[in-house]
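Late entry, nicotinamide-adenine-dinucleotide complex.
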Amino acid sequence: MTNRILVTGGCGFVGRHLVSRLLRMGNEVVIVDDLSTGIDPNLWVHPQYEGKFTFYKMDSRDFLRTMAPTRFSDVYHLSAVVGGRLKIDRDPIAVAQDLAIDAEFFNWIIRSKCDRILYASSSAAYPVNLQGKTKHVKLKENMISFEGNMGVPDMTYGWSKLTGEFLATLAAKHYGTHIACVRPFSGYGEDQDKTYPVPAITQRAVNREDPLVIWGSGKQGRDFVHIEDCIDVMLLAIGKISDGSAVNISSGKLTTFLEVASLLATIAEYSPKLQVLTNMPQGVHARFGSVNKTKKILGWTPKISLKEGLKRVFDYANNNTPLMNMLFPEMISH
Ligand SMILES: NC(=O)c1ccc[n+]([C@@H]2O[C@H](COP(=O)([O-])OP(=O)(O)OC[C@H]3O[C@@H](n4cnc5c(N)ncnc54)[C@H](O)[C@@H]3O)[C@@H](O)[C@H]2O)c1
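Prediction complete; structure with ligand written out below:
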């Protein structure tokens, strides 16, 4: 049976990879996106899938209030004001829109008769005092507990995701909603916007810039997960988690931005000087997550190493690969 699936924010970075995967799996997909940062799906969905997807270019709040039928099999809620570090740190009230987007969403799902829901939270929901220079730990899901003392998450973005997770547990407990949350760490991939560090540094390496510039001290570290691995977890989580609880999407490995830049320079086959810009925002010092719970519950571990993933990002930028060819490679090669 064909499933009818709703993806809010389906034209963004995660959304494009999710929608292309869902279409390839034989589903019918309804995409809602106001294109504030997303890309029109008519520019990246392969024509073979015409008639298999419907696109509403509108605010997801308006869609849910006025247009949405109450029945979808699955719903993936990705629409959010995200942006890179500059947006999170220097435009924090704009990011507070996420509270309104999520409030509308949760009010809709408790009334709707959808089978399964996935809420995209974030590793930014974790307490920042566990991610400092002097003290940082591998972040485990139970370090966020709505029954114990709460830590302070990362800026407005983290607060909104933490609130979303709390609402997910309430939706499950009080309304019987089948809902899962995921906390992606640093998802990266070929077509990510250049306001994010991996594609930004990659483009500099493609241009063979010397020095090769990195924001912050360069010693700040993240847990990088290729977007196709992230999609695997989302598809598994919506099936196996129903009580509103969350799993990490992480590799368990901490990699500094200096290491990312070095890897990219090696891929580009040149030896630039690495230059750090300490006046640019860098976020927390060290954010990385345990993979144990995700492995235990979903049987998942990442398939794409950072080296392999960065090579894909480099080749995509270096070869000027069209977006559709990257998202639907099997259609292009036949
Ligand atoms: N990419 C990551 O590594 C990562 C990490 C943690 C969490 N997440 C979460 O995953 C989700 C998707 O992230 P992304 O990286 O694809 O971001 P993105 O900015 O690329 O995508 C968000 C999409 O939502 C759309 N949008 C924004 N406001 C909207 C509104 N009011 N109505 C309809 N559409 C709207 C934008 O146009 C965009 O297409 C977000 O909820 C984000 O917080 C992503």
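The pocket of nicotinamide-adenine-dinucleotide is lined by residues 8-9, 11-15, 32-38, 59-61, 78-82, 101, 120, 122, 184, 186-187 (CB under 6 Å). Will revisit in the morning.
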